[in-house]
Structure formats: structure tokens, C-alpha cells
């Protein structure tokens, strides 16, 4: 049973931990209703936003800057330089380092990449990664392995990864990630589950994962927070929002 939307904890700094809100969202290159998109993101009050399909072409930096300004966030990393994934954060985050990672290109397929960062929030040091995995199954499985390798090499105890997996739970790539990390929806389901499509949600292909030391307080589609019409108009995916308790020290 999912928990009511109203019970999702707000961001907070506690004795020995930080509660953060993390949003993962495929924004379809901002080709839809950008005002609705900004309202959805603001309604979720995220500390970190893991974006997929950020603008990548003509004047992409200006488009990303407009989204950040409209949501009271700042750009951490990514965009065209990561082949689509991008990270945004609130002013609550202190940035330690960022890195855009391009993955090997398979001829005939789209280039893929990761937007990554290490940040400190409320005393907690956190690795963050946004990904958009391939439509092709074999390449997608390799990219899932590369994601795990990247997290392991970030030099942090606690890390969060999220994105559009282009695969449902039970698939090889999804299972590979869920075997090493916590699938936050499975750990503490909240709100809605399916993320595709907004007008007919029937499959969960977007997810947030966390390393074992992170406590998942709730995770799911923010149906009770964002306006239903905005969710339909903003893009062709529903977002995933997680509240996480990350130890400090």
C-alpha cells in the first residue's frame, strides 16, 4: 500500500542526518508546456533534480537557464555535454565537484551519458547521477553496469542515481541496478507508481535508486502534490519524487 502524498517528509537538517527531496524527471527537451513543467518541479520542492532529455541543441544553455530560473534552482552539471542528462539543485546544496560522462557510442544509436556531482546538504556528503539508458537491450545492460561502476568510483559512502531506464522492473538492466542499490519505490512506495505515459500511466520505466546506507522515507509519482493537468501537459513522462534520510559525518 502506498502512503498518502501529504505524509512525504519535507527537507530538513537533523542531528546526524539530512532529509532531502530528490526528483527524477524526463522533460522531453522542454518541447511541451514549460510553465506547467516549472509548476510541477516547484510543487515537489526538491533539493536535487535529476533531469533526462534536457535541451541539447541550439541555445541549449539558455533553455536550461530559463528552467532553473523558473524553478528557483541552479544548474549543477550536464545538458548537451552529457548527451541529455542534467542536474539541478537548490541553494541548500554545496557543490564539491561535477563531471559529465559520455558513454561509448554504438553506431546507429543515440549517444548516451551521465550527469554526475558530489554535493553536501545539511552535513551529508552525497554522490548524484542522472541517466537515460538506451532503447536497445544489450547496450542498456552495459550502461547499467557503467552506472554502478561510476557510483562506486565517486569516493562517497552515500549516493543516489535516477533516470529514465527505458525498461520495466524485472528487466535485466532494471534488475542489475536493483540488485546493487535500493529501488526507492520498492523500499517505500508513495504517491503513484507508473511513469509512462502521463495520460495513460501503465508502466514504471523511471526510477530513483539509493545506496544501502540511505533511508528511503517515501518515493513515487507526486500525484498529490502536483496539479494533475500540469503533469499531463509538462512532458511525456511522469516525475519520480523521493524523500531520503542521508547520514552525516
From TrEMBL:
Keyword DNA repair: yes
UniProt KW Cell wall biogenesis/degradation keyword: no
Short name of any one Pfam family annotated for the protein: Exo_endo_phos
Chain ranges of the Endonuclease/exonuclease/phosphatase domain: 23-237
Cofactor (UniProt): Mg(2+); Mn(2+)
Organism domain of life: Bacteria
An MF annotation (GO) of this entry: endonuclease activity
Protein name (database record): Endonuclease/exonuclease/phosphatase family protein
Amino acid at each position: 500500500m502506498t502512503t498518502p502524498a501529504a505524509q512525504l517528509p519535507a527537507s530538513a537538517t537533523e542531528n546526524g542526518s539530512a532529509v532531502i527531496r530528490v526528483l527524477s524527471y524526463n522533460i522531453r527537451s522542454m518541447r511541451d508546456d514549460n510553465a506547467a513543467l516549472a509548476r510541477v518541479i516547484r510543487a515537489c520542492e526538491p533539493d536535487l533534480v535529476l533531469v533526462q532529455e534536457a535541451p541539447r541543441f541550439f541555445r541549449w544553455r539558455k533553455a536550461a537557464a530559463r528552467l532553473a530560473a523558473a524553478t528557483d534552482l541552479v544548474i549543477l552539471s550536464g545538458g548537451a555535454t552529457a548527451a541529455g542528462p542534467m542536474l539541478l539543485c537548490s541553494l541548500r546544496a554545496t557543490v564539491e565537484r561535477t563531471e559529465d560522462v559520455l558513454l561509448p557510442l554504438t553506431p546507429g544509436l543515440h549517444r548516451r551519458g551521465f550527469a554526475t556531482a558530489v554535493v553536501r546538504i545539511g552535513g551529508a556528503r552525497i554522490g548524484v547521477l542522472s541517466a537515460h539508458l538506451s532503447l536497445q537491450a544489450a547496450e542498456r545492460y552495459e550502461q547499467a553496469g557503467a552506472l554502478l561502476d561510476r557510483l562506486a568510483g565517486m569516493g562517497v559512502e552515500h549516493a543516489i542515481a535516477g533516470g529514465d531506464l527505458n525498461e520495466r522492473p524485472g528487466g535485466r538492466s532494471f534488475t542489475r541496478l536493483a540488485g546493487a542499490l535500493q529501488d526507492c519505490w520498492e523500499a517505500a512506495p508513495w504517491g503513484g507508481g507508473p511513469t509512462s505515459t502521463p495520460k495513460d500511466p501503465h508502466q514504471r520505466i523511471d526510477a530513483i535508486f539509493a545506496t544501502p546506507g540511505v533511508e528511503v522515507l517515501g518515493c513515487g509519482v507526486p500525484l498529490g502534490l502536483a496539479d494533475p493537468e500540469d503533469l499531463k501537459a509538462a512532458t511525456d513522462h511522469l516525475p519520480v519524487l523521493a524523500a531520503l534520510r542521508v547520514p552525516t559525518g
